[in-house]
Write a structure and sequence with these properties.
The complex is a heterodimer of chains A (342) and B (337). Chain A is an alpha+beta fold and 342 residues long. Chain A folds into two domains: 231 residues, Aminopeptidase, CATH 3.40.630.10; 89 residues, Elongation Factor Tu (Ef-tu), domain 3. Chain A has nine helices and 17 strands. The chains are: A alpha+beta (342), B alpha+beta (337).
Chain lengths: 342, 337
C-alpha cells in the first residue's frame, strides 16, 4: 500500500530524499515524465492536454533535528515544524535516516514539584537518550549536529479501514496524489503532480514549483486536523474522520478561488461523493502560497481528515482518502469538459 | 472637487465585496472606469486592471488600491439556524456585536455574542449571525457554508468634509483612483489602475498584478489609522490634514528617491502632505508590490482614517482630493527619480 510505504519513510523539511525515492519507484509506471527541481520538489507529468493543472502534496513531515550533543551523551533537539510539547515526553524516536533508536526523556513524575506536575514539561528540558554515556559514544554512532530525528512509528491497520501512522501530514496528500496518477488518464489535461518540499516551515517548496510550472489552476492535497473525539463539542471538530474528503473554506494562507471551490463542490455532488468543509480557518496550506505566484494562480485545498495530526500516531480512514482521489478525478473530468472558466 | 467623488464613494462603500469575493466591486469599478481608459481586464485572481495608454518614451506606472473589505465567513450553522463565524481580515469582536451585515447571497443578518460577564471573555467563536432562520436547513438554504458577510450601513456626511460609515476601507482608495482616471490630462505615461483583491487579509492580490505588469514605479493608495484619540495609535497622522506618505511601517520602508519626488511635487503644488511612520501596521500592499518580480520602486500614499474596521469608519474628503491631486500632478510630470 502506497500510504504505508510513505508513512514509514522518513523526511523532515529539507530532508525529503527517502520520500522522494519511494514516490519515484512507486509512481514511475504511471507518468510520462518526472524530474526533481533545484529545491528538491519532485515533479511528475501525466498527459499533455491543453489545460495545465498542478496537484500539490508536500513530502516533508514535522520532526526534529539534533541541536546539541551534551558531554554526558544526550541529544538536545530543535523542532522542525509545529509540535505540541504535551505529546512529546516518553516518545520513542529514530535518529537519522538510519533509524538509531532513542527515547525522548524528561524529568520523572516523582521528582517534579506539585507546580511542575500541573504544567506541560518545557521542550527545552527534554532530551533524547540513546543509551550513551558520553559525547564520544554518540559520535561513535555517527550522530552529528543537524541530523534529523523522527517519531519511531510503524504504520498499521487498526481495522480494515482505519490506519495508524506517522507523518500523515502530508503523506496522506501524497497518497491521494499517487492514487490520482495510478487512476484514469485525463487526455484534456497536462497534469503536473508536484511533490513539494519544506511546507511545514513556511510553504516554501510549493511556491517554487508553482513559479516553474505556471499552471492554469492548482489544488493542494493535505492531511488536516480532525477532532470528532470524546470531549470535543461537535461544533468544534474541524473535520470528522469517516465523513469524506474535505474542501477548504479558507485558511490562514489563502481564500479558495471561487471557481475552483465551486467546481469541487459540484464535482462531489454530481458524483455522489460524501464531502465536508473544514470548519476552522487557522493553519496555512500551500494553496494560499501557490495562488500568489507569477500573475496569480486559481487554487484551493482538498484534505483528508487525520486525528492526532502532528503527533507520533495519527489515524485516518481509508474511505476518506479514496473519496479524495475520486473527488479529484471527477473535478479533472469537469475541467476537461471546459467547465473551469477563470 | 469632482461632483462624482461623493457619489462614487456612496456607491462603492455599499457594495458587498469581502476578501477573495470582490467580483461585484470589480464589475462596478469596471463600469465606472471604462470611459476613462483604453483597456480593462481581470486577471487570474480577480484583480481589475484598467490601462490608460501613454506617449512613447513615457514610463509605465501602476496605481493601486485594494477593493475588498474585511468580513466574516460562515463556518457552521447550529440546529437553531444561527451561523457560526470566522474572521476574514481584522474585524474585532467588540466592533461587531449588534451590527447588521449582508451575505453574498443578499440575505441580511444581525451579529450577536454569547452572554459574558466580562469583556475579556469576548471571543470571535462566541459570535453568531442571526438571519431570522428557524432551523439549520433554512439557514443553509439562504447562506451556504463558506459564504461571507460584510458590515452594512449608509454613509453619512459630518459637516462639510467628513464622511462616516462602513466599507470605506478601502473603497475610498478606489474612489481616489477613479478621480485620477477621470481627470488625468495629457497621456505622458502609461498608467495601470489596479483594483486589487485580498488586501484586507494580505496583501495578496496586488503581488501577482505587480508581477504581471512590472511597472517602472507604483503608487499604493490605502488607509491608515490617524492619531489624536484617547488610547488610540500613537502616530502623528491626523484626519483632514492631507494624505500621508508612508515612510515606514512594520513591513515596509519607502523607496527613498520616489518618496522624495512625491514630497517635492506636493511642496511645489502646495498640496498638504503628512508623513507617516507607524510600526503597528503591516498590511500595506506596498510591501508586496515593492518585492514583486525584479522589484518595483513603490510609494505608499495613505488616506488618514478613524475607526478602521468598524461600522463608523471616518475619512476626510479633503484628504481624498489631496491624494488624487497629488497623484495627478505626479503623473503629469516627468516622474524622474
Amino acid at each position: 500500500m502506497l500510504l504505508e510505504k510513505l508513512s514509514n519513510a522518513c523526511g523532515v523539511s529539507g530532508r525529503e530524499d527517502e520520500v522522494r525515492e519511494a514516490l519515484r519507484q512507486e509512481l514511475a509506471p504511471y507518468v510520462d515524465e518526472m524530474w526533481t527541481d533545484p529545491l528538491g520538489n519532485l515533479i511528475m507529468r501525466k498527459g499533455d492536454g491543453p489545460v495545465k493543472v498542478m496537484l500539490d502534496a508536500h513530502m516533508d513531515e514535522v520532526g526534529f533535528c539534533v541541536g546539541d550533543i551534551t558531554s554526558e551523551g544526550y541529544l538536545k533537539l530543535k523542532k522542525i515544524g509545529g509540535l505540541d510539547d504535551r505529546v512529546l515526553p516518553g516518545r520513542e524516536v529514530w535518529v537519522t535516516q538510519r533509524r538509531i533508536p532513542g527515547v525522548l526523556g524528561a524529568k520523572a513524575w516523582h521528582l517534579c514539584s506539585a507546580e511542575e506536575r500541573r504544567k506541560a514539561i518545557p521542550f527545552k528540558e527534554m532530551y533524547v537518550d540513546l543509551g550513551c554515556r558520553s559525547r564520544a559514544e554518540v559520535e561513535a554512532l555517527g550522530v552529528e549536529l543537524g541530523d534529523p530525528v523522527y517519531f519511531a512509528t510503524i504504520f498499521e491497520h487498526f481495522s480494515p479501514r482505519v490506519v495508524k501512522g506517522k507523518a500523515f501530514d502530508d503523506r496522506a496528500g501524497c497518497a491521494v496524489l499517487g492514487g490520482v496518477l495510478q487512476g484514469e488518464a485525463h487526455p484534456g489535461i497536462t497534469l503536473y503532480a508536484a511533490f513539494t518540499v519544506q511546507e511545514e516551515i513556511g510553504l516554501r517548496g510549493a511556491r517554487v514549483a508553482a513559479y516553474n510550472l505556471n499552471p492554469d489552476l492548482a489544488i493542494s492535497l493535505e492531511g488536516t486536523g480532525c477532532a470528532n473525539v470524546p470531549g470535543v463539542d461537535p461544533k468544534e471538530t474541524i473535520t470528522n474522520m469517516g465523513e469524506g474528503p474535505v474542501i477548504s473554506l479558507m485558511d490562514a494562507a489563502g481564500i479558495p478561488n471561487l471557481q475552483v471551490f465551486n467546481l469541487l463542490v459540484e464535482a462531489a455532488r454530481e458524483a455522489g461523493i460524501r464531502y465536508q468543509f473544514r470548519r476552522l480557518t487557522s493553519g496555512g496550506t500551500n494553496a494560499g502560497r501557490i495562488a500568489l505566484e507569477r500573475a496569480g494562480i486559481p487554487a484551493c485545498t482538498v484534505s483528508v481528515p487525520c486525528r492526532y495530526i502532528h503527533t507520533n500516531a495519527a489515524l485516518l480512514n481509508l474511505d476518506d482518502l479514496e473519496g479524495a482521489v475520486s473527488l479529484i478525478h471527477h473535478f479533472l473530468r469537469k475541467v476537461e469538459k471546459g467547465e473551469f472558466r477563470p | 472637487m469632482s461632483s462624482l467623488l461623493l457619489e462614487r464613494l456612496h456607491r462603492l462603500a455599499a457594495l458587498w465585496g469581502p476578501s477573495g469575493r470582490e467580483y461585484k466591486v470589480a464589475a462596478a469599478l469596471e463600469e465606472m472606469i471604462r470611459p476613462y481608459v483604453d483597456e480593462v481586464r481581470t486577471d487570474a485572481i480577480g484583480n481589475l486592471i484598467a490601462v490608460k495608454k501613454g506617449a512613447p518614451g513615457g514610463k509605465r506606472v501602476m496605481l493601486t488600491a485594494h477593493m475588498d473589505t474585511p468580513g466574516a465567513l460562515a463556518l457552521e450553522v447550529s440546529e437553531e439556524g444561527l451561523i457560526q463565524l470566522a474572521p476574514v481580515g481584522d474585524l474585532k469582536v467588540h466592533h461587531l456585536i449588534g451590527q447588521r451585515v449582508v451575505w453574498g447571497s443578499g440575505v441580511v443578518g444581525v451579529i450577536q455574542h454569547e452572554a459574558v460577564d466580562e469583556s475579556k471573555d469576548l471571543a470571535f467563536r462566541k459570535l453568531w449571525c442571526d438571519i431570522g432562520a428557524r432551523s439549520r436547513e433554512e439557514a443553509l438554504a439562504n447562506v451556504p457554508l463558506g459564504d461571507m458577510c460584510t458590515l452594512v450601513g449608509e454613509l453619512q456626511q459630518m459637516g462639510a468634509d467628513l464622511i462616516t460609515g462602513p466599507g470605506l476601507n478601502n473603497r475610498a482608495g478606489c474612489a481616489v483612483l477613479l478621480e485620477v482616471a477621470e481627470h488625468l490630462q495629457g497621456a505622458l505615461h502609461e498608467v495601470a489602475f489596479v483594483f486589487a483583491t485580498q488586501g484586507a487579509v494580505g496583501p495578496r492580490g496586488v503581488a501577482p498584478a505587480a508581477y504581471g505588469l512590472q511597472p517602472d514605479a507604483a503608487f499604493v493608495v490605502e488607509m491608515t489609522p490617524s492619531g489624536g484619540l484617547p488610547g488610540g495609535p500613537k502616530v502623528a497622522v491626523r484626519l483632514g490634514e492631507g494624505p500621508a506618505l508612508k515612510l515606514k511601517d512594520a513591513s515596509f520602508v519607502a523607496h527613498w528617491r520616489l518618496s522624495e519626488l512625491v514630497r517635492s511635487v506636493a511642496e511645489a503644488e502646495k498640496i498638504p502632505l503628512q508623513t507617516e511612520i507607524n510600526s503597528d501596521v503591516d498590511r500595506t500592499g506596498a510591501r508586496a508590490v515593492a518585492a514583486a518580480g525584479y522589484g518595483v520602486p513603490t510609494a505608499a500614499l495613505d488616506l488618514p482614517a478613524r475607526y478602521l474596521g468598524t461600522a463608523g469608519e471616518m475619512v476626510s474628503l479633503r484628504d481624498l482630493m489631496g491624494a488624487a491631486d497629488l497623484l495627478m500632478k505626479l503623473l503629469q510630470g516627468s516622474l524622474a527619480f
